[in-house]
Write a structure and sequence with these properties.
By secondary structure, this protein is an alpha/beta fold. It has helices at about 10-20, 40-45, 65-70, 75-90, 100-110, 125-130, 155-165, 180-185; strands at about 25-30, 55-60, 95-100, 120, 145, 175. The protein has a 4-stranded parallel β-sheet with strand order 1-2-3-4. A two-stranded parallel ribbon has the order 5-6. Helix 5 (about 100-110) links the parallel strand 3 and strand 4 (about 120). The longest helix is centred in the middle third of the chain and has 16 residues, at about 75-90. It is globular, with a radius of gyration of 16 Å. The two termini are about 15 Å apart.
């Protein structure tokens, strides 16, 4: 691993990019907070990783929206960095979803990019089951990796929904990894 000189959010995003660059996945889902998927999506645009992968971004509570709701007025460098990473991640994702339409309205009012496809859905895993183009047939999934904190209301329920769908039929040779915080799980002590 190379040393990344940047804010904490950018360092975490780069660690995830390094991991994804070394592995192949058909579907990748990122939560919006902190822009965790930013470098991975830039890497995909440059042809360095995620080739052929379908990338989802679940928007729950962007950093600046959360600061507004808490009435935190002081500008903090990390919040501005997160805002940039989150906006760009939304612009580069295949599908951007939320279970709360007011979040999309908040994003529109603040000039966020629209992204390719926006959806309001309660159960995002249903969209993961949409047909795959003929040239990109997937015989079966071999692994589920979930980079997120398993907290309610979003992380735990999303993970459990995906896991329940996988376990609905007998599965052999399938791995589930829940590394949680990418800074810790990828071997870096990034705060």
């Amino acid at each position: 691993n190379r040393e990344v000189r940047a804010g904490a959010a950018a360092r975490r995003s780069y660690l995830v990019y390094e991991f994804l660059k070394a592995h192949r996945f058909d579907i990748v889902h990122f939560a919006d907070r902190g822009g965790l998927g930013y470098y991975s999506l830039v890497g995909r645009r440059q042809g360095r990783c995620l080739s052929g992968a379908r990338v989802f971004v679940g928007v729950h509570e962007p950093t600046l929206r959360q600061r507004e709701l808490r009435e935190e007025r002081q500008e903090v460098q990390e919040a501005l960095e997160c805002d940039f990473l989150e906006r760009e991640m939304v612009a580069l994702a295949d599908i951007v979803w939320t279970s709360r339409p007011l979040v999309f309205e908040w994003m529109r009012q603040r000039g966020w990019p629209r992204g390719r496809t926006r959806s309001v859905m309660q159960r995002p895993c249903t969209s993961l089951l949409t047909p795959v183009p003929a040239h990109r047939k997937i015989s079966r999934a071999r692994e589920l990796i979930f980079f997120a904190r398993l907290v309610q209301p979003h992380g735990r329920s999303l993970f459990c929904d995906a896991f329940a769908r996988i376990c609905a039929r007998p599965v052999r040779g399938f791995a589930v990894r829940v590394p949680g915080d990418p800074a810790r799980s990828l071997g870096e002590g990034v705060a």
